[in-house]
Amino acid sequence: MTTIDPTLDLTLQRVIRAPRPAIWQAWTDPARLQRWWVPAPTIARVDRLDVRPGGAFVTTMSDDGETFVPHTDSIFLVVEPQVRLVFTNAIDSAWRPAVPTPVPMTAEVVFAEHPNGTDYRIIVRHGDPADRDRHEQLGFFDGWGSVTAALTELVERDATA
Amino acid sequence: MAKYDAIDGVFVALADPTRRAVIRRLGEGPASVGELAAPFEITLPSFMKHVRTLETSGLIRTRKSGRVRMCALNRERFAVIEDWLTEQRRLWEGRTDRLEQFVTDHQEDT
Asked: Which of A61, A65, A141, B9 could form a cystine bridge with A136, CB 3.0-4.6 A?
C-alpha cells in the first residue's frame, strides 16, 4: 500500500515550525485552505471540502477574481484527524471514475509530532500511462483522442510555420 | 498549456502495446517501417497510424531513404516525462512553502 515507484511518484518531507492542529486546520478549513492552495496572484475558491472518506474536495481558481475555472475535483479516501489525509482525482466528487490529464494521482499527507513542530510528509502516487490501454480498448478514449488531435494540429502548425 | 499537450502526447503514445513494442524494438537501433511492422498481424495502413502517433509525440523520428521509411528513437523526448515529474514536485514544494508560511504567520498572531 505504501509502495513508491520512483519513476512515477514523488515524496517530500519537511519540518514545519507549527503545531499539528494548526496545519490540520489549514488543510481542512475552507477559508484557510484557499489562502495557500494556489500561488498568488491566482485566487482559489474552495467549493466543497467534506473532510471524511468519500467526501468531496472541489476547488476552482481564477486569475481575475471573476471567472473561475475547475482546479481540483477529488474525493478523500482516508481521513485520520491530525494524522493523515489521502485524496485522489481518479474518482471525481460525484464518485464517477475520472481520467484526469495527464494521469490520475493519489496524494497522501502525513502529519507527525516533531520536537520543532510538525513532521510533514507528502506522497503523491501517479497513475501509470500504460493503464490506459483498457480505456482505449473499451472505447473510453475519446477525450484522449481529441487531445492527441489538438497536439497533432499544434505540431503540424509548428512544422509549417 | 503547450507543455501539457506534449506530455499528453507522450503518454498517449505509450499507452498502447503495439507502440510500446515499437519503442522497445527501436531501443536496439533504427529500423524500417517494414521491419517494425513484421511481427504484428495488422495491415500496413493500421501500423502506419501507430508510427504517425509515435512520430507526432516526438518519441521517434522518421526519414525517407529512397523507397524505405526509416524510424529511430528520439531519446531526448523521454525527458518530457522526467520534466513533468519535476514540475509536479515544484508544484507540491510551492504548496508546502505556502502552507508553512501561512501556519507560521498565523501562529505569531495568536
From this structure: A141
Looking at residue B109, its pLDDT comes to: 52
Q: Apex CA A47: angle with CA B94 and CA A28, to 5°?
A: 60
SS3 content of chain A, % helix, strand, coil (to 5): 25, 35, 35
The CATH number given to whatever domain includes residue B96 is 1.10.10.10
Contacts of B93 (CB under 8 A, 6+ apart): A12
Please give, rounded to a whole number of angstroms, the shortest distance from the CA of B17 to a CA of chain A.
8
Cell digits of residue A55: 467526501
Distances (CA, A) of A44 to A19, A21, A41: 24, 22, 10
Q: How far apart are CA A23 and CA B95, in angstroms?
A: 13
Provide, as residue numbers in chain A, all residues whose Cβ is less than 8 Å from the Cβ of B6: 151
Closest to B69 (Cα-Cα) out of B38, B40, B35, B46: B35
Residues of A in contact with B9 (CB under 8 A): 147-148, 151, 155
Q: Say which CATH topology domain A10-127 has.
A: Alpha-D-Glucose-1,6-Bisphosphate; Chain A, domain 4 (3.30.530)
Residue A2: all three cell numbers together: 505504501
The pTM is what? 0.67
